[in-house]
Specification:
- The chain is mainly α and 250 residues long.
- It has one domain.
């Protein structure tokens, strides 16, 4: 997360990197790529790629794992499981699977842009409101979209796990071995502990690091990446604590 103390090259002019080079550069040379994005923002390519991967993961999950199995696992881990009869459990599974399947399809299509727009909104508040740096939505949103590209790797890994792993042990909260929650047994671990363990994910931290680097480049180096990272990290920790607290009482 070291800052490169140079402003975007060639002002707003100059030729930008092709989309594929930008994608590769996010993983190999993020500082240089985010400077290029700050000069010539573009979010269509990465946004479409992220949505396609999200749809692919969801469709694979519904076909290989099945929403009924996922709903059953959720009920089995809940506090109410012991008080339900087999007939009530089956009824809850049927009703829940129908609703959850519709929600999963909608979430696959619209969840990614909504999430990225929210992250961009926070970025605008951080740069414009906290640090007083003028930044437009297009630049910030472009940075956010490219910063989330590591989730493509997570999606590919999740699809591989679903295709070749044991469907009875699939955990949609931790689908890949990128956090401690993946290695815990949901039926033997409290929901609060599982929520905490699943939250400390390599891909989440990677996203925040890239986001901090990218927004620093949007500011022209006026704001270092470190304080941006810790603002996002602090907000994320609040969400993690809230998630664990909710899981503790459900």
């Amino acid at each position: 997360m070291n800052d490169i103390n140079t402003s975007p090259q060639s002002g707003e002019g100059g030729r930008s990197k092709p989309f594929l080079r930008r994608v590769i550069g996010v993983f190999t040379e993020p500082g240089e790529v985010f400077e290029d994005i700050a000069r010539k923002p573009d979010f269509i390519g990465p946004l479409v790629l992220l949505i396609l991967v999200s749809v692919a993961v969801t469709e694979t999950m519904l076909s290989k794992i099945g929403m009924q199995r996922i709903i059953y696992a959720s009920i089995a881990q809940s506090r109410q499981a012991s008080s339900l009869s087999p007939a009530q459990i089956n009824q809850a599974i049927e009703r829940g699977a129908a609703i959850a399947s519709v929600f999963a399809h909608l979430s696959a299509l619209f969840g990614v842009p909504i999430f990225l727009a929210a992250m961009a909104g926070i970025g605008l508040i951080v740069l414009n409101g906290i640090f007083g740096v003028h930044a437009g939505f297009k630049k910030v949103f472009s940075v956010v979209c490219y910063a989330d590209l590591p989730s493509v790797l997570a999606g590919v890994m999740a699809i591989a796990v679903m295709l070749f792993g044991d469907p009875d042990h699939f955990n949609p909260q931790s689908p890949v071995p990128s956090n401690p929650g993946f290695f815990l047994n949901p039926r033997e671990t409290s929901r609060a502990v599982l929520a905490l363990a699943s939250s400390f994910d390599i891909f989440v931290l990677w996203f925040m690091i890239l986001l901090a680097i990218g927004l620093s480049r949007v500011s022209g180096g006026a704001v270092k990446s470190r304080p941006i990272f810790f603002i996002y990290f602090g907000l994320w920790m609040i969400l993690v604590v809230a998630k664990a607290g909710f899981a503790l009482f459900t």
